[in-house]
Amino acid sequence: MSLSMYQASVPVFLRLLGNLSAILDKAVAHAEAKKIDPAVLVNARLAPDMHPLARQIQIASDAAKGAAARLAGVDVPSFPDTETTFADLQARIAKTVDFLKGVTPAQIDGSEERTITLKIRGEDVHFPGQAFLLFFATPNFFFHVTTAYDILRHNGVELGKMDFLGRP
């Protein structure tokens, strides 16, 4: 049995966004327990030239909804990048999940050869759908989810590998 484009995308994004939401819950609890202003964590970054936590989550959201929309051949929903609190970030994740749940297998399956065009650094880059999903969209999504995890872990939030992977 082969793995469909839908199975390789939407369920993966949904699972990791759910795990990311649970990680943010742990960050809120950590901030409360340690009497840390939550804004410190929301604005934390691993290096001066890296995006802070809030932006990592915005980009992860954009990667998931953008990949699903492009593969489905529908407009990518636009969410303003205005999140400044954990509640805002949770709402962003929830909106992304709601969008993904509305994308059907019939819309994505068969998109392996659909041409996906992105503007990267001012230039059009073209991918066949399967290469876009496997070599661009999914790694980009995982990079930003991982970086969000790493920022929080670096700042003392008690997280382990299973928080990232989630439980079956």
From TrEMBL:
<protein>
    <recommendedName>
        <fullName>DUF1993 domain-containing protein</fullName>
    </recommendedName>
</protein>
<dbReference type="Pfam" id="PF09351">
    <property type="entry name" value="DUF1993"/>
</dbReference>
<dbReference type="InterPro" id="IPR018531">
    <property type="entry name" value="DUF1993"/>
</dbReference>
<dbReference type="InterPro" id="IPR034660">
    <property type="entry name" value="DinB/YfiT-like"/>
</dbReference>
